[in-house]
Write a structure and sequence with these properties.
mainly alpha; binds adenosine-5'-triphosphate; Helix Hairpins; 124 residues; lipid biosynthesis
Length: 124
């Protein structure tokens, strides 16, 4: 297996190339994860609702943070799944706990984001 930390062709590339790696990760998650696609579509709906409701700037800031947190957690969850499936494709009780916890982290942030949106609706 290639050791990436010693490979000058992979580590510490220029900013634009690292940006391309990051966008490629987002694109891979979009293609492989139905939940990531659902979250993005829901988030677009939430942003359209904000455009219509025109709440105070603080609500925009909190909503954008909540959206970013949910999508970032889903990307971490997807990253973890890929690493685990590559390193240990077999069924294992510990892997179930690891994957369930990662999915639980996404769920916690989704519930918090939904709660934030409901509070916003009650305030406007
Ligand atoms: N190798 C494994 N060993 C034990 N349980 C596993 C394993 N792979 C998956 N599971 C179980 O199946 C669930 C779903 O698996 P996985 O996370 O790979 O699929 P997913 O549909 O992409 O999930 P998510 O909606 O969280 O992205 C896990 O949360 C875990 O409970």
């Amino acid at each position: 297996m290639a050791r990436l930390e010693k490979d000058p062709n992979v580590k510490n590339r220029p900013f634009l190339e690292r940006l391309e790696f990051a966008l490629s990760g987002i694109s891979a998650a979009w293609r492989s994860e139905a939940s990531f696609r659902t979250q993005i579509i829901v988030m677009i709906g939430v942003l359209l609702a904000l455009l219509w409701l025109r709440p105070a700037a603080i609500w925009w800031a909190m909503t954008v943070l909540a959206i970013g947190a949910v999508l970032a957690a889903e990307l971490f969850n997807t990253a973890l799944e890929h690493v685990i499936d590559h390193l240990h494709p077999e069924h294992a009780a510990k892997i179930k706990i690891a994957k369930d916890c990662a999915a639980g982290a996404v769920l916690v942030l989704c519930v918090a984001a939904i709660a934030l949106f409901l509070i916003l609706l009650m305030q406007t």
